[in-house]
Structure formats: C-alpha cells, structure tokens
C-alpha cells in the first residue's frame, strides 16, 4: 500500500514501524524457522496430517485471503465429514506460543472444497488465518521448478529437511512441527513430469503426509570457495512411506510383518505449483 507523504499522521507511524519490523524479521529468518512457523497440523478425531501455508499475491483478493494451505490430497480425503481443524500459533511473548485452532470447511453438500491435482497426491485450499496468527508470508515462488533444480544442481546425496507431525506428536506446547532431514535417495529428478516423485532417506510415519520437503543451504556460485549463494527451495511434499511386507508361515497359520524402510516418497513441487494454478 502506498501513502502520500502529506497524509501521514503520527498515528500511522507505529503501524508502519511494525510492518517494517515484520518484513525485516522475515528477511533475517532462515527458511527452517520460516517453514516451522508456516507448517500446521491438519487434524480430525480420526486422522491427522500435515500442511504448510504459502502466500500468493492477488489484486482481486483481500490481504488475509491470499494464504494457501498445501497438503497431500489423501489427507483431506481421509477426513470424514465437512470440517477439519488447523492449528496455527500466536506469539504471546519471546519464546512462548499459544495454539490457535481454526475450523475450516473441506466439504459442502458432499463436494470437496479443496483443489486436487488431476494425477498426483497434492491438494490446495485458500484459507483465512486467525487474527494474530504468527505466520510468515512465504511466497509461492519458493516452489522448485525443473529449471531451479537444474540451476542449483540438486542431486542424490543432497541433504533435505522435512517437517511433520508423526503420530500427532508435536515438538512442544506451542504445537510446532518436528524437523528431520536426510539425503535425497533417488535419481533422476528431472524432468519432474516423468519422475513425478523422489525418495528421501528419513524416518517418516503416519501424520507426516503433506509436510514440506525443502533445501536450505549455501551453494557454490563462482570460481572462489567463498563465492556462495543461499539456496531456498521447497522441493516437494511427503505423500507416503515405503514398507517391506513379509509373510511368515507357521504350523497353524501365517502371520504378516511390516518393516519400515525409512524412506519417504515425495511429490515434486512442480505439481504443487500446478495445483495452485488450478485454484478458483
């Protein structure tokens, strides 16, 4: 919003100072902290998932309705009924946060209110965060494109981070997600329309679905060792985990064992972009 200088009043100065302080904070924070603040639990009595909130500037929308919740499509599909609860947070004081639950409508007259990608497990929904929610404005442009993956030479072995709520577990009383990381464990990545998903070598559990997977690291950008750029990319979201199922034959029957392989299947961010573009 632009202001004519002669219309500025003393009453407006504190508001402007607060706005500038908020912008400065967003610039100073690393992507880990920003995504911690932008990741929310998507909850219902019978099932729980993870989502993260991005910001999409649009002239025809109000400021608070430009926020988009991104999650895995099956997170919404597995929730019975018409409502789900998102857990945002309010900052009470330094180091102290309070949960801000928000009920959202996910179905109306039996029809899904979210937008789902036509082929991949990605869903998006415009949300209006609660007043006073501690929420950064993370731009949609953080979502990695094929061009960005090539430019920054994202490759197997790169350590990526993920955020989630395994078995509903939260990091603390403020309701923040749990951060884990691991190496990118599959090849090739591009073109993403062919590979569609990739593997991340990390522990993942029920409740992690929909959580962001991202890269936040310094990359060499020139001939000298000190020539480094900070890379900030959301490369996808967790869609499922991989198992090994084993059947054991016994004298009076058989039993099945399921082993976790500590591998998360991640949908490429390019499909998140496509889903957001399909929003009404």
Secondary structure tally, helices: 6
Q: So, the CATH homologous superfamily?
A: Trypsin-like serine proteases
The N- and C-terminal alpha carbons lie at a distance of 25 Å
The poorly predicted ranges are: 1-24
Query: What is Rg?
Result: 21 Å
CATH class designation? Mainly Beta
How does the helix and strand content classify structurally?
alpha+beta
The CATH topology name reads: Thrombin, subunit H
**Strand order of the main beta sheet, please?**
5-4-1-2-3-9-8
Helical amount: 10-25%
Number of strands: 15
What best-fitting shape do the alpha-carbon axes yield? globular
What is the count of distinct domains? 1
CATH architecture: Beta Barrel
**N to C succession of SSEs:** HHEEEHEEEEEEHEEHEEEEH
Reported for the largest beta sheet, the result is: 7 strands, antiparallel
Task: Give the percentage of residues in beta strands.
Answer: 35-45%
Question: How much is the average pLDDT?
Answer: 88
């Amino acid at each position: 919003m632009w202001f004519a200088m002669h219309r500025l009043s003393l009453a407006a100065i504190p508001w402007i100072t607060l706005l500038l302080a908020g912008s400065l904070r967003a610039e100073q924070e690393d992507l880990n902290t920003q995504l911690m603040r932008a990741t929310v639990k998507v909850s219902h009595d019978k099932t729980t998932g993870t989502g993260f909130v991005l910001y999409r500037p649009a002239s025809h929308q109000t400021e608070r309705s430009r926020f988009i919740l991104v999650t895995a499509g099956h997170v919404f599909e597995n929730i019975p009924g018409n409502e789900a609860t998102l857990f945002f947070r309010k900052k009470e004081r330094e180091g102290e946060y309070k949960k801000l639950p928000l009920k959202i409508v996910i179905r109306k007259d039996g029809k899904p209110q979210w937008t789902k990608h036509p082929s991949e497990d990605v869903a998006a929904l415009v949300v209006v965060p609660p007043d006073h929610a501690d929420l950064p404005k993370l731009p949609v442009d953080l979502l990695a494109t094929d061009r960005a993956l090539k430019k920054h030479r994202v490759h197997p072995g790169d350590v990526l981070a993920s955020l989630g709520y395994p078995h509903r577990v939260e990091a603390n009383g403020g309701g923040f997600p749990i951060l884990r990381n691991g190496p990118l464990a599959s090849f090739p990545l591009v073109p993403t329309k062919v590979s569609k998903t990739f593997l991340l070598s990390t522990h993942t559990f029920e409740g992690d679905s929909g959580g962001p997977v991202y890269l936040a690291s310094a990359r060499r950008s020139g001939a000298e060792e000190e020539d480094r750029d900070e890379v900030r990319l959301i490369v996808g979201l967790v869609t499922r985990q991989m198992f090994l199922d084993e059947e054991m034959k016994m004298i009076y029957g058989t039993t099945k064992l399921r082993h976790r392989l500590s591998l998360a299947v991640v949908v490429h961010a390019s499909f998140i972009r496509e889903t957001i573009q399909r929003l009404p």
